[in-house]
């Protein structure tokens, strides 16, 4: 039997990774930690983008339907993340601080790539496995700069929230973020979308492996469930991801 042919090793291109504030500064306060978790989440979205961009020209026709499912899951994951910010996380921060407009810049940045993201999904839903790699990459290129700029800028906005936390209006940023995330979770999101997030996380190697077991914070059975158990559904989609269940960069499917 001939050995299975592997695609090339995933590379951080066309979008580069984002360093975490904690790695850059050595600070460990709650705002720096939450900003770093945001940067790591953004890196998972960036690797998802890159894995789509790199593989789209090489995916054989027989595998295109699964690839489209992967692409749409990536879109829906990024969309869910920004919905979580706009509807729960940022309003909760404003309420705790007794102010309005905190992180408004992030909301305005979302609008800069929203239309491009929607074109991406609508094109894939319309064309399905008949999609043209050249057209798909052209759509992605149209919004990649605005998307990447936002991903790089937002962690600093979270670090800066520390100056708005006072004894009268304390901002418990870690609790706010955890509560906001829990409100967004549904069974459909976990099964159909989250694998594209966890399987694009290079937690075992990125920044000297300092995030392994820290973010994502799962260990043991919960880690196995989220990185190996849940992805058994729609398993053919998740093979296009950039990282292994162990959090290491891997060879791409194509």
UniProtKB/TrEMBL annotation:
Q: Which organism is it from?
A: Apiospora arundinis
* InterPro entries linked: Dimeric_xanthone_biosynth, Hemerythrin-like
Q: Would you tell me the protein name for this molecule?
A: Iron-sulfur cluster repair protein DnrN
List the PANTHER family hit by this protein, alphabetically: EXPRESSED PROTEIN, HEMERYTHRIN-LIKE DOMAIN-CONTAINING PROTEIN
A Pfam family per the record:
Hemerythrin
From which lineage does this chain's organism come? Eukaryota, Fungi, Dikarya, Ascomycota, Pezizomycotina
Q: Which residues form the Hemerythrin-like domain?
A: 38-159
């Amino acid at each position: 039997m001939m050995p299975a042919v592997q695609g090339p090793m995933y590379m951080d291109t066309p979008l580069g990774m984002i360093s975490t504030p904690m790695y850059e500064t050595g600070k460990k306060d709650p705002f720096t930690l939450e900003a770093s978790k945001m940067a790591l989440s953004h890196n998972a979205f960036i690797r998802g983008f890159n894995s789509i961009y790199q593989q789209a020209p090489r995916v054989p026709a027989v595998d295109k339907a699964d690839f489209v499912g992967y692409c749409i899951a990536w879109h829906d994951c990024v969309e869910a993340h920004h919905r979580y910010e706009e509807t729960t996380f940022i309003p909760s921060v404003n309420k705790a601080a007794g102010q309005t407009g905190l992180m408004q810049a992030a909301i305005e940045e979302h609008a800069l790539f929203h239309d491009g993201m929607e074109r991406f999904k609508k094109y894939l839903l319309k064309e399905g496995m008949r999609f043209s790699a050249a057209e798909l990459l052209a759509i992605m290129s149209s919004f990649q700069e605005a998307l990447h700029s936002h991903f790089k800028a937002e962690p600093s906005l979270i670090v800066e929230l520390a100056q708005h936390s006072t004894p009268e209006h304390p901002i418990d940023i870690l609790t706010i973020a955890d509560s906001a995330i829990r409100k967004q979770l549904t069974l459909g999101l976990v099964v159909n979308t989250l694998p594209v997030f966890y399987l694009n996380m290079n937690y075992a190697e990125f920044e000297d492996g300092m995030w392994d077991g820290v973010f994502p914070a799962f260990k043991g059975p919960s880690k196995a469930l989220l990185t190996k158990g849940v992805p058994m559904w729609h398993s053919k989609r998740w093979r296009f991801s950039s990282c292994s269940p162990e959090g290491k960069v891997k060879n791409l499917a194509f």
